[in-house]
């Protein structure tokens, strides 16, 4: 491949053909907001939508990356190919040596069947989700049956991956009281499946009861609860079964609607973040702003007058 192509259409063609170097290059393009990324995304988009996309999130240290490894093995055991995006600087998949170990662990025809990619989570306008979704789309277009996305989410509304994927799994280890409180308070988005990780640790019985209480028993709304242990190698098959059954309940229309709503929110958030950044740059570069702020400090101008002036300057009207 001539130094890999610079043409977005040719790169898209290679991605769709499953060329691994092209997949890696394409993900870099969307991650780095390469000038030709838009044309690349447009060219692959007709091929996106076949993969089952599963988000795996949870607080730091909950056992996400370990669980991800177990899920990759489980999905391979069932004969499916799998692409992984880990938005996690500390992911074992981000380090070459560990990557090698993980791939060997999979014990399969890994070259073609498994693709790992880790992405940084900092420095993006509009948060991590835009680049992550596009990286997952690249893997989808490349023909992987399953795409797994690992993100760190400590609670509140930062399980931002939730409605951008088909099914979201939240990993919680025994003693994750903060997350239970967040669920109870209704400030954490309810996932489809909760994986109670590290069930070999003490305190699991108490935590299970706490979690069940917080999640409720409404069969329509309550997530599936599956216990896993990497130490004993337990729970991966049950976890994947729960993912599949949630996916089946949602159906194709449910998944499409969920993803459309998530994308709409991401697009709006991205546009708003970029507009905010542009406004900030305009304000920083505008000498009239310094004058107005001085006036505010000296008491010549009131805050509303300063805000109006800044608005007008940003809009180019003053
Ligand atoms: N006892 C026990 N330890 C586990 C289990 N799963 C993971 N761990 C350990 O828990 C720690 C965190 O595991 P990770 O898989 O790196 O967790 P993570 O959620 O990806 O962590 P971050 O990426 O740092 O947020 C590691 O020391 C693992 O060895 C388990 O089932 N049982
Ligand atoms: Mg991790």
Please tell me what the overall shape is.
globular
Mean pLDDT: 86
> Taking Cα atoms only, what radius of gyration do you get, to the nearest Å?
23 Å
Q: What is the CATH topology assignment of the largest domain?
A: Rossmann fold
- Uncertain residue segments: 91-109, 123-127
The main pleated sheet reads as: 7 strands, parallel
Strand order of the largest sheet: 3-2-4-1-5-6-7
Small molecules bound in the structure, each named once? guanosine-5'-triphosphate, magnesium ion
E-strand count: 7
Assembly type of the chains comes to: single chain
Q: State the secondary-structure class.
A: alpha/beta
Return the domain count: 2
Query: Which percent range describes the beta-strand content?
Result: 5-15%
The CATH homologous superfamily of the largest domain corresponds to P-loop containing nucleotide triphosphate hydrolases
**Second rung of CATH, namely the architecture of the largest domain:** 3-Layer(aba) Sandwich
Order of helices and strands: HHHEHEHHEHEEHEHEHHH
Please, how many helices? 12
Distance between the termini: 54 Å
For the record, the CATH class of the largest domain is Alpha Beta
Structural account:
The protein folds into 2 domains: 1-46, no CATH class; 48-250, P-loop containing nucleotide triphosphate hydrolases (Rossmann fold). The model is unreliable at 91-109 and 123-127 (pLDDT under 50). The chain has 12 helices and 7 strands. β5, α8 (177-184) and β6 form a beta-alpha-beta unit. It has a 7-stranded parallel β-sheet, sandwiched between helices. It is an alpha/beta fold and 318 residues long. The protein has helices spanning 8-16, 20-31, 37-44, 64-77, 96-106, 110-113, 129-141, 177-184, 204-215, 236-284, 287-298, 303-314, and strands at 52-58, 82-87, 114-119, 146-152, 167-172, 193-196, 224-227. The radius of gyration is 23 Å and the shape is globular. α1 (8-16) crosses α2 (20-31) and α8 runs parallel beside α9 (204-215). The relative contact order is 0.12. It binds guanosine-5'-triphosphate and magnesium ion. Guanosine-5'-triphosphate is lined by residues 58, 60-66, 88, 90-91, 152, 197-198, 200-201, 229-231.
């Amino acid at each position: 491949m001539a130094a890999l192509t610079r043409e977005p259409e040719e790169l898209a063609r290679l991605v769709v053909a499953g060329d691994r170097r092209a997949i890696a290059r394409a993900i870099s393009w969307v991650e780095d907001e390469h000038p030709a990324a838009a044309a690349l995304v447009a060219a692959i988009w007709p091929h996106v939508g076949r993969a089952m996309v599963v988000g795996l999130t949870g607080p730091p240290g909950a056992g996400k990356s370990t669980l991800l490894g177990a899920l990759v093995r489980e999905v391979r055991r069932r004969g499916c190919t799998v692409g992984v995006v880990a938005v996690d600087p500390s992911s074992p998949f981000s380090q070459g040596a560990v990557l090698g170990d993980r791939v060997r662990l999979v014990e399969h025809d890994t070259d073609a069947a498994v693709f790992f990619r880790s992405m940084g989570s900092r420095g993006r306008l509009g948060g991590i989700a835009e680049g992550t979704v596009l990286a997952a789309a690249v893997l989808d277009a490349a023909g992987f049956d399953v795409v797994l996305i690992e993100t760190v989410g400590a609670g509140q509304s930062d399980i931002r991956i939730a409605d951008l994927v088909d099914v979201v799994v939240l990993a919680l280890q025994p003693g994750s009281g903060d997350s239970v409180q967040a669920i109870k308070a209704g400030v954490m988005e309810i996932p489809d499946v909760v994986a109670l990780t590290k069930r070999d640790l003490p305190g699991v019985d108490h935590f299970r009861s706490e979690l069940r209480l917080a999640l409720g028993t409404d069969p329509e709304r309550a997530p599936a609860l599956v216990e896993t242990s990497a130490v004993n190698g337990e729970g991966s098959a049950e976890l994947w079964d729960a993912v599949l059954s949630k996916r089946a309940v949602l159906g194709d229309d449910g998944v499409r609607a969920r993803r459309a709503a998530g994308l709409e929110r991401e697009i709006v958030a991205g546009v708003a973040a970029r507009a905010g950044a542009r406004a900030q740059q305009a304000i920083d570069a505008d000498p009239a702003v310094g004058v107005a702020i001085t006036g505010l400090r000296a008491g010549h101008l009131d805050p509303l007058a300063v805000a109006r002036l800044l608005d007008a300057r940003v809009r180019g009207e003053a």
